[in-house]
Amino acid sequence: MKRFVFLALVAMSLSVPTFAERIKDIASFGGVRSNQLIGYGLVVGLDGSGDKQSSSPFTVQSMSNMLSQLGVQVPAGVRIDPKNAAAVMITSSLPAFARRGQSIDVTVSSMGDAKSLRGGTLLLSPLRGADGQVYAMAQGNVVIGGAGASAAGSKVQINQLNAGRIPNGATVEREVNSSLNEGPVVQLELTESDFTTANRAVQAINKNFGYDTARAIDGRMIEVRAPQDPSQRVSFLARLENIHVEPGEVSPLVIINARTGSVVMNKAVTIDPVAVAHGNLSVTINNTPQVSQPAPFSNGRTVVTNQADISVKQDQGKVVSLPRGANLNQVVNALNAVGATPADLVSVLQAMKAAGALRAELQII
Question: Which CATH class is domain 21-29+179-245?
Fold first, then answer.
């Protein structure tokens, strides 16, 4: 009976599924990508919070050119005050497989000295790609997620007022051809280069679709044979991206932000036997003014002197010994035990790395 219970427990432990991720979560298809778009335009209808003529002459030039294209000739020497208009840069992202007539969101950002774009309307502006071609046209009311008011030299502002978004503010006018349906194979590109993950992905794909369906080119790219018919290829890719793969173990890594003092470690970080000691040295200086008052009718002068009191205090450092192969939880608990602050962790971890005890890559950003 005991043997049967033992075998049942072993079978249950073997049947527990390991942590796995879908291919769509760790990889992307080659040729399926978004394209960045950029444009220049004018936002009008501002309540006196636009650009100034003296510091933003390009806004005046843009307004003159726009009026000329609309058939309005501005007489020479006439001053245009752009206080109700602002020059802006327009950015957007053209998603993969975007079709002509599809709407996309745009972001509008002031490039002059406008105080606010709140309540403004973006005039029709072209959005160009890296090749200089126009891929979309943008126009619409700018949505600002903030508010502000000023009076009598006082100012109150909530959030940023010089940048906003126009939901569905651009219409796609040119399509970008995708190479996904070209050729007998499709390419899978892993998000993180790892030979173990690439090999496991190839094995999982061949297990589901048959031998020699996929092959790894390197630690990042995998080639997969796919049907030529577009409808069959879409169905094939839908099944492909939902295959579960167990990723390879991550490399131990410690990331330190030297500006903020924040430290991030992944679960693979381990250490060799090491003793860590940490103590704080504090210096306190107190300055006490003392007044020396002369006797009456002595024709003396009142003198103020400073009495300095300097004290040096060094906290008793604690020594903590860490065993070999300590995991992340033990490392964090030990560093907290010696009283290390987030700023001190930077020095402690660097010292552990220099001593050869920290089994991880130390990356400072």
Answer: alpha beta
